[in-house]
Design goal:
Blueprint (H helix, E strand, L loop, with lengths): L1 E6 L6 H13 L4 E6 L13 H12 L5 E3 L12 H12 L5 E6 H5 L7 H7 L1 E5 L10 H7 L7 H5 L6 E4 L8 H9 L10 H9 L9
Parallel strand pairs: 1-2, 1-4, 2-3, 4-5, 5-6
Helix pairs in contact: 2-9, 3-5
The protein binds adenosine-5'-triphosphate.
Adenosine-5'-triphosphate binds next to α1, β4, α4 and α8.
Amino acid sequence: MIGILGGTFDPIHYGHLRPALEVLDALDLAEVRFIPCRIPAHRATPLITAEQRLALVRLAIVDQVGFVADARELRREGPSYMVDTLASLRADYGDDTPLCLILGSDAFRELPAWHRWRDLGHLAHIVVMQRPGDLPPFPPALEEFMTPRRVYAASALRREPAGGILFQPVTQLHISATRIRILLAHGQSPRYLLPEAVLASIRDQALYLGATR
Ligand code: ATP
């Protein structure tokens, strides 16, 4: 069973890394693939390039067994739609391997705005990580989509290649990339919110100094 964590990773931080490790362990995943988007489909253009964001992801995960950086969205033209990414992963892993799309609860809430969002359920399971302060209810269309698909154990995901939705409790870390960018732009330190190696590389390259969001 494979985990997929897509994101802007602008930059990657412990709010991505620790919950992803907990999902890797709790679901006994073979790997979690970190997939930075090239052009986010649903939000403003990031402040640094996709290659720079990917390089920071690589630095963050280099010594964690089971964490893999996946550059496939950088190689694809146009907006980075998750439905296309999952189709490409499905082609790589075949029809029988369970794929788990891992989403923070804030991203899950926004799902009905995603391109061909209902098709995501044909391609992968969805594993939702609770994010601080983000409580139900979800929008009606999402509740309707979720109810028949909801499962309560990783073993249920393992039995099918796609189609389940599992809520996985994770350590609540009130960390966002937005806050890190703002701290850097104000000359304040985001230390201990993200790996030292990532922060050192951000400082070496003088990234985010002009960030306003
Ligand atoms: P920004 O502050 O720029 O919006 P972000 O910190 O939310 O960024 P993304 O790259 O947009 O980071 O997030 C990628 C995925 O990781 C999303 O599914 C998001 O919900 C999840 N995620 C991000 N931060 C956390 C966190 N602190 N706890 C749990 N999940 C998180």
